[in-house]
Amino acid sequence: MEAFGVILFFGTLAGAAWLYMHDGGQVETVNASRDDGADFFMPMRALGSLLGVAKLPGGAMDAEPGGTLSGEALDGEPDGSSTGGGGVAPRLNATDGTGWDPSRFKVPGLRNNNPGNIRYVASLNWVGQVGEGQQGFAEFETPQDGIRAMVKNLLYYQDRLGLKTPREIFSRWAPVGDGDNNPNHYAAAVANSVGIGIDDPIDLRNAGDGLIKFVNAVIKVENAQNPYPLSFIRDGIKRALEG
Fold first, then answer.
1. pTM
2. Which of 4, 22, 118 lies closest to 70, judged by CA?
3. What are the contacts of 84-92 at 24+ separation with CB within 8 A?
4. Which of 117, 158, 168, 234 could make an SS bond with 58 (beta carbons 3.0 to 4.6 A apart)?
5. How far is CA 173 from the centre of its chain?
6. pLDDT tens for residues 31-71?
7. In whole angstroms, how far apart are CA 64 and each of 61, 68, 74, 148?
8. Which of 158, 140, 155 is nearest to 240 (CA)?
């Protein structure tokens, strides 16, 4: 009976992983490549998130020791606004009118329109934030709002903290000791997608298509998939660079 229980347990985990990786029959419209070392790392992180037993890396890094977010947390949003509330899904996408429905996804980052998994802090007013979503992460009105917030955080890491290489950025974004984080694997997946080494500097503000590749890779590491069309990525990045 003990052997049967072990088989049943691992069979359940395998089934959950398969369901997640085939979430809603979604076809990835934008793919970020990753090195072999990250192939095991990403699905396991996603499975942990789905089962609620592991923190996702982006949100873990966004929390400062004092309980405030890095990035715009120190400066505030330009308009100082927040729509408040939470748990609003499905919602029409306000940017392109396609009726984007985040509720069809199981992983919190995609359900929350927060693909970078930025932690929710009530005192912060990200543009497009509607409140606290699943597992303590911020929830945004549209995916573009969430992508914008993620890029603003990354730009803060470079502009204010002086973190220039993938290894430096993801050692802070996804530190060792928080959940199942492996910052070197994370850095390698993103660097490989961009076409640089993990210790090569990258100027995200002036990276052009390199920033698009960087963002695509972060989304895929965080969520084990990237269902967003390129137009969503471009719009979120454009809004982050503009302010």
1. 0.66
2. 118
3. 84/130, 84/131, 85/130, 85/131, 86/130, 86/131, 86/132, 86/133, 86/139, 87/131, 87/133, 87/139, 88/130, 88/131, 88/139, 91/141, 91/142
4. 117
5. 10
6. 333 333 333 334 444 444 444 333 333 333 333 322 233 33
7. 8, 5, 10, 20
8. 155
